[in-house]
Amino acid sequence: MDAANLTPKQRRVKQIWGMVALCICGAAVYELPYLSWSYYDAAVEFYRVSNAQMGYLMTMYGLACVISYLPAGWVADKFQARHLIATALVSTGVFGLILTFRPPYAVLVICYVCYGFTTTIPLWSAMMKATRELGDSSEMGRLYGFLEGGRGFVPVLYGAFIIPIFSYLGEGAGGFRAILIYFVILDFICAFFALGAIRKLRPDEEETQGSQTKHKHSFAEYLDMMKNKNLWLLTLLMFCCFMIYESYSYITPYLTNFFGVSESLGAMISLIKSYGLAVFGGIAAGFAADKIHSNPKVIGIGFSLMVIGIATFFVVPAEPKLLGLAAVTILVISLGLFMVRALYFAVIDEIKIPLKYTGMAVGFASVIGCLPQIFIYSITGNLLDAFPGIQGYRYMFAYEFAAALIGAILAFTLYRNIKKENDKKA
């Protein structure tokens, strides 16, 4: 049935199922490349690599992602989102299956590069555009908030099931292999769910106006879109967010090395701070943004929370007796981080990017905004190897603090620009 002919109840049901599918599939596909976030020590043992080599794997993954963002935007505007997302899940699962055989390092590098292609070209922009296609402008904060929150909640369920098995198998290489197999199977199952549940519920501008002409994108349109100063501000604050997000996986070894946390407890804390806080932070941020009619303002508040939290790590001694205080600090940083992550693509609607250009806008913003994926793991991994002990982590917290502060400034500047433009039209 065409979306225009749906009753409000039918539309709401399809919207809910579409969002559930995006959350489940959007979470599952990223589990394989990001397993080192929650199981860092076990991943290093299973892959038989050093900190620097693990960092290099993630760097190559990030490089493949970044060079894929522009073509991902073009692909998202050309093909149906459900077909692209299913393709991403199946192809990512195939490379995860290869890793279960514990291949040599050269093959690891190839697989992580391929992870970058499979989780970006058919997925990234398609997932963001599919979210925007589920509702109108008044719902963007909630929809993107639920996407981030749902993608945070679902991995907690995954982890609640797999962590006991990981612990039972000894928390080492054997346990990590079981985790790989688990997520490979999950990706294949989710591909079928994506095909059945994801639908477009919001017409393009041409469809609204009754045009039957299919729009074709051109390079000139990319250039016109790049002149939007607010899109540049969005891109730069994304860069700041990714500086923090991509290095946040090192919180787990920080806790295990200096606060006496076991690998299993460290994995559980990692799941809570990386995913559990996404539920509250993402959903709450989305509702707040729709309530006050401003995504950038809520983003600025999120960055401000990160500034406070990261600054605390400079004054809290890394001692087991202060684990409780460290945990609270992590929760504050995570809350701010996922408030930002939930909303930056909701800003695309607020800065008046047409729906038909959504893939292009997401692709352009991601090319620069996600650049930290290329270098942050190598930089941090080498810092930890070059400066053993607490000093390496202090350098990490230093660049995270700078990124959070600059991000807050950019977000409030974007809020001011949008407010001025809206006041002129009023």
Automatic annotation (TrEMBL):
It is found in: Cell membrane. InterPro entries: MFS, MFS_dom, MFS_Efflux_Transporters, MFS_trans_sf. Its main location: membrane. CDD domains: MFS. Gene3D superfamilies: MFS general substrate transporter like domains (1.20.1250.20). Residues 1-419 form the Major facilitator superfamily (MFS) profile domain. It comes from the Bacteria. The chain crosses the membrane at residues 16-35, 55-76, 83-101, 107-128, 149-169, 175-198, 231-251, 271-289, 298-316, 322-345, 357-376, 396-415. Keywords: Cell membrane, Membrane, Transmembrane, Transmembrane helix, Transport. It holds the Pfam family MFS_1. The keyword Transport applies. It is a multi-pass membrane protein. Signal peptide: none annotated. The keyword Disulfide bond does not apply. This is MFS transporter. It comes from Blautia hominis. The lineage of its organism: Bacteria, Bacillati, Bacillota, Clostridia, Lachnospirales.
